């Protein structure tokens, strides 16, 4: 009985501690969500707002009426889609080539890829390289330097190594080429790894900030995260300077605009996770059991 009651007390204590930690973690997110839906009058009254007196979309209408925010959202969407597609093609093809033991120079290439995960040339060499190839102030400067990663190459290589070699041999007997084996057999079997790595790439491109600050000079090409940073510094400047491009006559409280912008920037990525959850589960288990 003592052990049973002690175990219950321990479990109850764990639940209380975890509940408190969950509340502390989720409250800022809840507060951002609530503030983005309150009316300006309720916000100006001050105090801690736990629930809107009247739900309103004024902040979102005001935000989406600005040309700068719409352009920044389009830039981030372009980076997340085109950048992720290009990165997956390069990473998957290179990782598959490195997983084939018959590839000439395979060990040397593996060593070079490993060195990229250990050594970083720094900001200045990166900037000079991007400048010399003529990508300054181009959206491709946010994609090409981040086109692949040594860590993701090794991750996908591990998935490709777990695919039985007999499948490739059977396809070769049927007359398939190396590219055909990769496109028709290896890639469909490796969808869990592709989905997982693709999500990592998409989140990285969607949250692009530092590279945009370095390489982009035109404010019209800023991605969403740079615009959000500008909003934290000066809401009126970030969203349209003197407010001439705003459709609403009354300017919204800057804090409400910031909260609404954070929600708009977060929701697209949150919607992607449920659709890829099953692939994550398969990806974790792939290669863990030998048959």
Automatic annotation (TrEMBL):
The chain crosses the membrane at residues 12-38, 75-97, 109-128, 140-160, 256-276. The lineage of its organism: Bacteria, Bacillati, Bacillota, Bacilli, Bacillales. PROSITE patterns: ABC_TM1. This is Carbohydrate ABC transporter permease. InterPro entries: MetI-like (IPR000515), MetI-like_sf (IPR035906). It is a multi-pass membrane protein. Belongs to the binding-protein-dependent transport system permease family. It comes from Paenibacillus artemisiicola. It is found in: Cell membrane. It comes from the Bacteria. Residues 73-276 form the ABC transmembrane type-1 domain. PANTHER family: ABC TRANSPORTER PERMEASE PROTEIN MG189-RELATED-RELATED, POLYGALACTURONAN_RHAMNOGALACTURONAN TRANSPORT SYSTEM PERMEASE PROTEIN YTCP. Keywords: Cell membrane, Membrane, Transmembrane, Transmembrane helix, Transport.
């Amino acid at each position: 009985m003592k052990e049973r009651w002690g175990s219950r007390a321990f479990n109850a204590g764990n639940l209380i501690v975890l509940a408190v930690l969950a509340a502390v973690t989720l409250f800022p997110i809840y507060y951002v969500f609530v503030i983005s839906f309150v009316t300006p009058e309720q916000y100006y009254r001050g105090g801690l707002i736990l629930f809107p007196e009247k739900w309103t979309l004024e902040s979102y209408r005001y935000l989406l009426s600005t040309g700068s925010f719409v352009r920044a959202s389009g830039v981030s969407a372009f980076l997340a889609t085109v950048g992720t597609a290009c990165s997956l093609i390069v990473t998957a093809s290179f990782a598959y080539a490195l997983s084939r033991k018959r590839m000439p120079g395979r060990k040397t290439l593996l060593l070079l890829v490993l060195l990229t995960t250990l050594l970083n040339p720094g900001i200045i060499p990166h900037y000079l390289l991007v400048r010399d190839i003529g990508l300054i102030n181009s959206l491709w400067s946010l994609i090409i330097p981040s086109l692949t990663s040594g860590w993701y190459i090794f991750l996908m290589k591990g998935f490709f190594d777990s695919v039985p070699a007999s499948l490739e041999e059977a396809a070769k007997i049927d007359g398939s080429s190396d590219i055909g084996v990769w496109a028709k057999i290896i890639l469909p079997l490796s969808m869990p790894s592709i989905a997982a790595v693709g999500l990592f790439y998409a989140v990285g491109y969607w949250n692009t900030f530092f590279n945009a600050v370095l390489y982009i000079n035109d404010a019209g090409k800023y991605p969403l995260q740079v615009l959000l940073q500008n909003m934290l510094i000066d809401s009126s400047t970030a969203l349209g300077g003197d407010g001439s491009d705003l459709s609403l006559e009354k300017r919204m409280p800057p804090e409400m605009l910031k909260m609404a912008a954070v929600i708009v920037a977060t929701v697209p990525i949150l919607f992607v996770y449920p659709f890829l959850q099953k692939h994550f589960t398969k990806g974790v288990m792939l290669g863990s059991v030998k048959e």
